[in-house]
Design brief:
Elements: H1 2-31, E1 34-39, H2 56-65, E2 70-72, E3 78-80, E4 83-89, E5 92-97, H3 111-124, H4 132-136, E6 152-155, E7 158-162, H5 170-173, E8 204-209, E9 215-219, E10 233-238, H6 246-252, E11 258-259, H7 267-276, E12 280-284, E13 289-295, H8 297-302, H9 305-323, E14 330-331, H10 346-355, E15 367-371, H11 378-387, E16 391-395, E17 414-420, H12 427-435, H13 443-454, H14 459-475, E18 479-485, E19 488-492, E20 495-497, E21 511-513
Parallel strand pairs: 1-10, 1-11, 15-16, 15-17
Antiparallel strand pairs: 2-3, 4-5, 5-7, 6-7, 8-9, 9-10, 11-19, 12-19, 13-17, 13-18, 14-18, 20-21
Helix pairs in contact: 9-11, 12-13
Length: about 525
Amino acid sequence: MKIQFKPIIILLLIAISLLGGSFVMNYKKTQNSTLRVAFPADFKAQHYEPTNISIDYEYIFLENIYSTLVEVDTKGTIVPGLAERVFWEGDELHFKLKNNIKTASGKPITIDDVVFSLKRLLILSGNTHGNFKDLVCSGEELKSINQDCSGIKASGDTLILISPNRKSFLLPMLAAIDFAIIPKASVNPETLAIENYQETSGPYFVAADDEKGNIKLKLNPFHYHATNDIATEIQLIPFTSKSSSESLKALSEGRVDLLTTVDTARADEQIKFVNEHPEFTSHITQKIRSHLLVFTEKGFNSLSLEERRYIASKVRNAFQEIYGKSPGFEPREEFFPSLGEGGLTKEQLTQMEKLNLLQEQRPNKKFRLGLIRRGGIEPWANPINKNLPEAECYFENNAPDLKKNLTIEETPDAFIVSTDTGFMEDISLISYSLNAGLLGLSKKERDAWLADYMATEDKNLRLTKLKELHFNSLSQLWIAPLMASPYSATIRKPWAFNLSDLYANNQLWLIKMQ
């Protein structure tokens, strides 16, 4: 009998062992399903509004709690989001919704929520990543959710957008989180302000908020991105210290697990940290981060071209001192990457080389220079003041043109900002850069240029216009590119990145447990 049952016992022991191993593995996943994120902001959830995005961390927060009809995958391809099918019929772009889309509480997300969200965007008119109105409701002014827009229709579970001549920009534009689908019941019907951040369309929802930046997100189990190897809970822990090393210190001390691509710690600092700490891994994008000196309309008109050349030259010297020996950083002469679709032509580059040799003139007065930098401005301000004593450096929290009711006294003459650029034509990026003043033109000229650009169906002609705008912004010295660098993020193992190296996004559902 013993001999007869021995193989069975052995098999049982093996099975128990395997089950035990599986149990331990699943237990580890359960134990580590909370991801603690160092977040560079200390706002409450109600600060974040998809129709009014002006800075990177706002986008990152919103892209994790809301979803769009279509999304951009890690390779830059448009893929289904809340819509399972997307197709053109003549001038009509159809979006058939996925079945059983629900909020975390189980409430269905319907075509009414989709139509409501797009109309809400048009009414609040704060969209910074494209000109949606010109594509679907040109010439119409929506003042009420109950008012019709001729370009937005619904049929059953399908949204229909009517865009004459099949406007090519419409589909990729809708992947921006500005076009988040927001459950109608979560919004105040009078003010249209979002009031309920627990009922969302995205992979995560706000489960707790102390209104001081400590925000707990939880996974929506009904969402199409919900899998058993992503975090079931996200803790956003605010880090707004002037010290860029504070978040790295928290990482090494075990207080956080993730530094996002918009952390105060620079790419080279994070790379060095990971090299010294094998228990972490890093995510490095291509060099899509541009550091720019930007002249406002005030500065453009009050400083001569020769003075702007002098200022640009001295600021470039300062940035060479700051980043010249840092891994991953390199001087940049263009706003868009030189090999990208918006890069200058050979002839334009030759012209720029000649223009860069023209006369400079030192300003005979002080000028205000805003520094948009997390972690304190001293690492920029000190080298700049050494090279350019005329600059009155101060901390600036956003591009002045994205602020409301800014007086002329409060407006700087110039500011320095770091922003993401791209290799491919990206209407969301282009329109945002225009609105933020990063591509030249006065405020009055921008809308007309964008409308003309988006009405141009021939892509080659469109890119010619984009290159001309790019060249004019450089040659007239609206902007002066300083440095290019990658975006970087760092995470504690066994978490692993599956993010794109083409974008600065931080979709938390693309961070998985290995």
